[in-house]
Amino acid sequence: MEFRPLGKTDEKVPVIGMGTWTMGNQASGNDRSTEIEALRRGIELGMVLIDTAEAYGYGKAEGLVAEAVAGRRDEVLIATKVSPEHFHYDDVLMSCDSSLQRLGIKQIDLYQLHWPNPRVPIRESMRAMEQLVNQGKIRYIGVSNFSAEQTMEAQESLSKNEVVSNQVQYSLTSRSIERSLFPYCEREKITIIAYSPLDRGKIPGRIPKRITEKYGMSPAQVMLNWVTYKDSVVAIPKAASVGHIEENSRSVTPRLSAEDYALLSKLFS
Fold it and tell me: What is the CA radius of gyration of the chain?
């Protein structure tokens, strides 16, 4: 698996990680044991960035992650997110404690503000995030679904830490971040964590067959290869089965050529 720096830190994260949206929730129709097996297989294949959130299944996804990483905590980077309704200072601290308990760990590797909340000053939320770093409960601070301006405000609100990542929707067929957020994050060396990199399973039929055949990849693998082409991006596709996990793990070798990356970019612009 290919690894890249997380923001400006010395931490290395896999270019393909694992997302857990809807996982751990019986209403999703997925079998819990199958999901745990998939996460464990992903760890074996080097997809050691696991992203979850307190909002996913009302904490059930965090509980699923806890079970999947039991006995392997040192091998993985666990990222989770605090919900916007918990952005006040004391609420952030309490949410972190609850996530730590559900995850069964002593420290969260990457803690993220899940969505912007215009009713709570970003400065207040980031003050709480820095307090969590000071307490040793989290290692790195991130945001999610923040615009370039909001990300800048979040960074300016920190006194001695940095925003290392912004988790946003990004795929070959969903590219709104390229207008302003992408250039800002590249310039500031803030890692873009692409969620829904397969556009929630909407794999387009317009990916040229000559490209899939040239690289021996499925259209989904080509999409993951494309979205992680730039050094500032890593992706966290959700995969609740071992088969999909294994397919995802083979999506970045070999790399698309510059010409094929440009062709796909133009085709789906």
Answer: 18
Whether the full predicted model's pTM is greater than 0.90, yes or no, is: yes
Per annotation, catalytic residue among 56, 111, 140, 229: 56
Exposure of 117 in the CB half-sphere (CA atoms within 13 A)? 18
- Note if 229 is an active site residue: no
Beta strand ranges found along 8-136 (DSSP E): 12-14, 18-19, 49-51, 77-82, 108-113
Q: How many Å separate Cα 196 from the centre of its chain?
A: 9
**Structural domain range at position 241:** 3-267
Count up the domains in the chain and report the number. Answer: 1
CATH of the domain at 112: 3.20.20.100
* Cα dist from 79 to 40, 57, 127, 188, whole Å: 16, 16, 19, 21
Packing angle, helices 32-44 and 60-69, rounded to 10: 50
19 contacts 236 by C-beta, under 8 angstroms: yes
Q: How many Å apart are CA 19 and CA 173, to the nearest integer?
A: 19
Kindly write down the DSSP assignment for every residue of 178-200, as one continuous string.
GTTHHHHHHHHT-EEEEESTTGG
Residue 256 to residue 39: CA distance in whole angstroms: 27
Distance CA 170, CA 147 (A): 13
Q: pLDDT tens across 151-197, in order? A: 999 999 999 999 999 999 999 999 999 999 999 999 999 999 999 99
* pLDDT band at residue 142 under the 50/70/90 scheme: very high
Residue 147, helix vs strand vs coil: coil
Residue 7 CA: distances (Å) to CA of 101, 140, 185, 259: 27, 10, 9, 27
Cα 190 → chain centroid: 13
